[in-house]
Specification:
The protein has 339 residues and is α/β, with parallel strands linked by helices. It folds into two domains: 201 residues, 3-Layer(aba) Sandwich (Rossmann fold); 120 residues, Homeodomain-like (Arc Repressor Mutant, subunit A, Orthogonal Bundle), CATH 1.10.10. A six-stranded mixed β-sheet has the order 2-1-5-6-10-9, with helices on both faces. It has a two-stranded antiparallel sheet with strand order 3-4. Strand 1, helix 2 and strand 2 form a beta-alpha-beta unit. The longest helix has 19 residues.
C-alpha cells in the first residue's frame, strides 16, 4: 500500500519542488521562516519534515552567517550552483539601508538566474534587490504599503501596487512580506505539489485558509472601518497616488467596479463620495508633512497634488480648522531642537 506522499511524488513525475533562497543582510526572519516552513510541512505528512515532495537550499557567496533584522543568524547551506536546479529562487529582503543588501557575486547570480528563465521571487523588500539588479521592470511588483513610496521614488518607471498580498507570474513573483510569505508559498505548493500537501502545511501552521493574490493587505487607511475589500483596496490606491493623482474611474476599474458602483460603496460606508475621501487622504498626508517636516508649504501643496497654493491653504483650513501656516506655528518644538 502506497503512502499519500508516495502517490503525490509519483503524480509530479518523481520530481521534487526545488527552491533556492538568497538572504539579504538584515533579512526579515518571519517572512523567510513562514515561506520555508510551508515548504517543509507540505513536503511530508503531518510534521515529519522529510524532504519528499519539496527541497530547498539557502544559497550564498560564502558560508558566513547572515544576520536577520532581529539578530538571529542563518548559515547558507550551499554555494551558488546552476540556477536550473531550482523551480524558483527567492530573495528575502529586510531593512532598507544605504549599504548593499547583497554582494556583487550575489547580484551576478540573480542575473544569471533570470537569464536561465528560472522564476525569481522577491519576498518583503527582496523586490528592491531584484529591481536594483534591473530584473523587475516588466513585472507589476507587489510591495507592502509601508514601502510603497520608497519603491516609487527609487524605481519611478516600475509598475507597483500596495493593495495586494502577492503577485506571481511565470518568471517573477513578489509579496508584501510578513504572513503573506506563507500565502505565496502555499500557492506555489498547490501549483507544483498539490492541494493535499498545501492543506497539510496550512493545518500544521494553524492557518485556516491561504489568501489569494487578489486578497487585500490588512490596512485601514484613514481608520475607516469596513469589511468590503473593494473599498479598502480603493483607499490604499488613493494613499499610493497622492502626488501623481489617479482618476476615480481608474480606481474603480482597478478594484473591479464601475464608477457608479464605487460611489455607492463609498457613500454607504463613509457618507462621502470617492473624490471627497481622496481629497481627505491627500490633505492628511499634507498635515503630517506640515507637522513633521520643514518642507515649504508651497512644496507640500504640490507634493499632495494641488497646483494652486492658495486653494490648498483654503481647503486645508476648511478640513482641519487651521491654515497650514497656523498649524505649523503651533507645533511643539522637540527637546533636542530637531524639526
Amino acid at each position: 500500500m502506497k503512502l499519500p506522499q508516495q502517490k503525490a511524488r509519483e503524480a509530479t513525475g518523481g520530481k521534487r519542488l526545488q527552491v533556492g533562497f538568497v538572504l539579504a543582510r538584515s533579512f526579515t526572519l518571519s517572512a523567510f521562516a513562514l515561506f520555508v516552513d510551508t515548504l517543509r510541512l507540505a513536503s511530508d505528512e503531518a510534521d515529519k519534515s522529510g524532504r519528499i515532495l519539496a527541497d530547498w537550499k539557502v544559497l550564498g557567496s560564502t558560508r558566513h552567517l547572515i544576520t536577520s533584522s532581529c539578530g538571529v543568524q542563518v548559515a547558507p547551506t550551499s554555494d551558488f550552483v546552476d540556477p536550473a536546479e531550482f523551480d524558483y529562487v527567492a530573495v528575502v529582503g529586510g531593512l532598507l539601508r544605504n549599504d548593499l543588501a547583497v554582494d556583487h557575486e550575489t547580484l551576478a547570480f540573480l542575473k544569471k538566474t533570470a537569464a536561465r528563465r528560472v522564476p525569481l521571487i522577491g519576498i518583503c523588500t527582496g523586490t528592491f534587490i531584484l529591481a536594483e539588479a534591473g530584473l523587475m521592470g516588466q513585472h507589476e511588483t507587489c510591495v507592502s504599503w509601508l514601502h510603497y513610496q520608497t519603491f516609487r521614488e527609487r524605481f519611478p518607471d516600475h509598475p507597483v501596487r500596495a493593495d495586494r498580498l502577492y503577485n506571481l507570474d511565470r518568471e517573477r513573483g513578489s509579496c508584501a512580506g510578513g504572513s503573506s510569505a506563507a500565502d505565496l508559498a502555499a500557492s506555489i505548493v498547490r501549483r507544483h505539489v498539490g492541494r493535499a500537501a498545501e492543506r497539510n502545511a496550512l493545518e500544521v501552521l494553524q492557518i485556516d485558509k491561504a489568501r489569494t493574490a487578489f486578497d487585500i493587505q490588512p490596512r485601514r487607511p484613514l481608520e475607516i472601518e469596513s469589511g468590503d475589500d473593494r473599498l479598502r483596496a480603493a483607499l490604499i490606491l488613493m494613499e499610493s497616488h497622492v502626488e501623481k493623482k489617479i482618476s476615480i474611474p481608474a480606481i474603480a476599474k482597478s478594484v473591479g467596479l464601475s464608477r457608479r458602483q464605487l460611489e455607492r460603496i463609498f457613500i454607504e460606508n463613509t457618507n462621502n463620495t470617492p473624490a471627497a475621501v481622496y481629497q481627505k487622504v491627500r490633505l492628511e498626508r499634507a498635515r503630517q508633512m506640515v507637522l513633521k517636516t520643514r518642507t515649504p508649504l508651497v512644496d507640500i501643496a504640490v507634493e499632495v497634488g494641488f497646483t494652486n497654493a492658495s486653494y490648498f491653504a483654503k481647503t486645508f483650513k476648511k478640513v482641519f480648522g487651521h491654515s497650514p501656516g497656523t498649524l505649523r506655528s503651533k507645533r511643539r518644538p522637540r527637546p533636542d531642537g530637531a524639526p
